[in-house]
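Render histidine kinase in 3D.
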Amino acid sequence: MKIKTRLSLYFTLISSGALLLVLVSIYIAVFSFFTADFYKRLTDRTNLASQLYLKADELAADSMIQVQQKYLEKLPDEIIRIYDDNNISAFDMKHNIYWSKDIINQVRKEGSIQYEDGKKKVVGHYYHDNQGNFVILASAVDKGSTRRMVKLGQLTGILFIIFGTGLFFAGRMFAQKALSPVDKIVTEIRSIRSSNLHLRVGQVKSKDEIYELIDNFNRLLEHLQNAFELQQTFVANASHELRTPLTSIMGEVDVALDKPRDAKEYERVLRSIAADGSHLQETITSLMELAQVDLHYTQAILSPVRVDELIWELDEYWAVKKGPGMLKVQFGDMPEDQELLTISAHKSMLYIALNNIIDNAFKYSAPQPVTLNFEAGAGTVKVSVADQGPGISEADKAKIFRPFYRVNKDRSISGSGIGLYITGKIIELFGGSIQVLSNGFKGSTFIIEFAARNR
Ligand code: ADP
């Protein structure tokens, strides 16, 4: 059963249940009121009869009936009897005893009684008087109330059916309206395949649960797209990048073996093979790194990482590698709250990303020192790496983050063009941003920003 139908059914069940409860309560209240009212009318009759009985000697035997008919409307099948201490009924001699002795005695015992006898309602009262004690019993059929209750029951039933149907359709309409964004999401999701993971589900305006669902789904898509791209990049580039230097080596060797050559020529060929070999080694290393990042990427569980501590680790590493003071680490104003220095990340992946940038800075500005600036506060953690190298042109600023892209003029410097691609992906995974500042002639600054965990 569709959620829409289920929701409208639940809504109808709950609201019509409440409606039924109200209608039944009204019915019961009206019924009790009518019953009590009828007993009161019977009691009024017994009271009047008692007054007349006291003056009985002054009245003719059937005067009571006449008075009653004059002042009180006759009730259906009405019967009134007055019994003296000997259980002899006054006024009506024809049906001397109407109620059994047991009932009459029960009235004497209890003072007053009321009960239902089939369709009839009966009221009995015991009167003490200095002129004698007597029991009055009155009964009648409550035809009027029964008729009204039947009418009320019919009206209640009709109202219930009309409102119940109305509630079902109203519930269905609201459920349809509330779930219409879900229909839209389902249609959009249907068109997403592994071949078009760049597609995203359109966001809704109101910031509700559906908004969060779409937001999380889109984030999942982005993650999948990145992981997929990394894998595709690896597969697509691995064979090409490995084959190129190998072909070059084979070519050089074939040419050298073609005929006897002098020692100088052999040395040149060996140097060329060594250069290709080292390029091959670098490519294998970066492909392995790419594979490792890919593995981490798909399994990355983000945990709190203190960025300042990571920077001290990098400082130690580069002090050993390049010599003390070559990486100048500068800390700006530090917040007291340690959470403001902490981001959600994967420590070793973040280490790889920052190390790639520092490595490039040293590589392209050798032998000059590199400056690393760290700032935290206002909810963001910012790391800038500045060098005094050749700079990066405006056109290359976006391209350097592509896989295996290398700026032409830097081909003399060893590299594979994969470092910044990996760095960009990692930073994206942790929800950060990276930008390059450079005038294209001298010096480049890479600025990486993350949101602190405790914003
Ligand atoms: P690699 O350094 O292995 O070539 P990267 O992906 O790390 O690959 O960098 C891509 C390209 O971006 C480099 O080839 C280089 O041309 C350029 N680049 C990266 N960092 C710098 C820098 N600090 N200064 C100048 N150019 C840079």
